[in-house]
Fold this protein.
Amino acid sequence: MSRADADAVLDVRGYEPPEPFVRTMEALDQLERTKSLLVLLPREPFPLYRALEINGFCWQTEFRPDGSVAVLITHRTQ
């Protein structure tokens, strides 16, 4: 998955917790229903997955060779 797969990209690899979670949730608040957000993280975001599920999002996770993680997030369709 690449930046071309997403409508918006949020790179939070340089931030300390809980900043990646907070910034991701803020970005999702602004995400239109038909758009997607690619979040680049330093590690797998287990707490984020639960928040996404509760808030009606689905996601795909890709593990990168450098140890970082890319999560492509979209609104769940009914």
About this structure: The beta strands are 8-11, 36-41, 57-63, 69-75.
